[in-house]
Amino acid sequence: MTITPTDADFHQAVGARPTGVGLVGWAVGYDETWARDIGYGVPSICDHPGCGGKIDRGLSHVCGSEPHGGDHGCGLYFCMRHMVGYASDRRPVQLCIRCQRSRKPFRPTPDTPEWIHHKATDPSWAEWRAEHPEFKP
Questions:
Q1: Residue 86's beta-bridge partner residues?
Q2: Average pLDDT of span 97-112
């Protein structure tokens, strides 16, 4: 069975183990800290103010190199231009400039029109929309 972002449940990380294959990954999940969807299936804009670079909210773009930022980052998402390297005690961790300098995080960018439209119209989100009538695109 293959799981695609359109099959994803809003509040759960998508993971499946097709025969002979490892964990598929996090296509869509939810970050309660920043109150927004995350995962490589979520199109986004770099959270650095004024950037506008197109990214996704997957692990390759998260400050802290782990979901929600791990132990070192803020958990916001950045293009590679706005991510700096940082060596932790055990492994390299990617950080935004603010976290590297131990400052407060930037404000997160809003969801893209593309993602809002997908949540508002795709049949795979119908049950979620019914459970969240406050969602108004």
A1: 93
A2: 94
CA atoms within 13 A on the CB side of 28: 19
DSSP string, 91-107: SEEEEEHHHHTT-PPPP
Q: Cα(40)–Cα(36) distance, rounded to whole angstroms?
A: 13
Order of all β-strands in the sheet with 29-31: 29-31, 36-45, 54-57
- What is the model's pTM? 0.78
Rounded Cα distance, 122 and 95, in Å:
34
Q: Taking a C-beta distance cutoff of 8 angstroms, is the pair 78, 59 a contact?
A: no
Question: Nearest to residue 74, comparing CAs of 66, 64, 61?
Answer: 64
Q: How far is CA 29 from each of CA 35, 47, 112, rounded to the nearest angstrom?
A: 11, 18, 16
What are the start-end ranges of the H helices in the chain? 97-100, 113-121, 126-131
Counting residues of the chain whose pLDDT is more than 90, the rounded percentage is 63
Half-sphere exposure of 2 (CA within 13 A, CB side): 2
